[in-house]
Amino acid sequence: MSVAWIGSQPVSLMDAVRKASGLLKASRCPVFTIDADVHGTRSAIALAERVGAPYDHPLGQTLSREVALFTDHGGMFTTAGEARNRSDVIVLVGDIPPHHGGLLLDWASTQPRSDKLKKRSWFHIRGSEYSGAPKLAVRAVRVGGDDLSLGNVLAVVRATLQGRQTLSSLTNIDRLLKSLSAARFPVFVFSGASGQMPDLIMLQEMVADLNKKGRAGSVFLPADEAAWGMALTSLWMTGFPPRTGFTDSLPSYDPVRWDIQRMIRDKEPDLHVWMSTRGGQPPSKGTRLCLIALERTAVPVQGTAVTIAVGQAGLDHDGVCYSSKTGTFRAVQAAEPSQLPSLSSVVRQLAVALPGRKALVC
Amino acid sequence: MLIKLAGGEVIDPVNGKTRTRDIWIRDGLLINAPQGETADQTHDVSQCIVMAGAIDIHSHIGGGNVNTARLLLPEHHAAHQRRPAATPLSNAGWSTFRTGCLYAQMGFTTVVEPAMAPSSALHTHLELADIPIIDKATLAILGNDDFSLSLLRDNTSSAMLDDYVAWIVGSSRALGVKVINAGAAAAFKENVRSFSLDDEVPEYGVTSRKIVKSLQASVTRLGIPHPLHVHANNLGIAGSADTAAATIEASEGVPLHLAHLQFYSYGTEGKRKFSSEASRLAAAVNGNRDVTIDIGQVMFGQTVTISSDVMRQFSAIGNASPKKFVIFDGDGNGGGGIVPYRYKQDYYGSLQWAIGLELFLLINDPWRVFFTTDHPNGAPFTAYPELFELLMSSAARDEQSAKLNASALELTTLASIRREYTFDEIAIMTRAAPAKLLGLKDRGHLGAGAIADIAVYRKGRDVAKMFREAALVFKNGDLVVKNGKVTNYRWGKTLRLNPPADKAIVKRMKAYHEERYGLPLDWFTFPDSSIQRDEPFGEVPCNS
Ligand SMILES: [Zn+2]
Question: Does A358 reside within a domain?
Answer without folding.
Answer: no
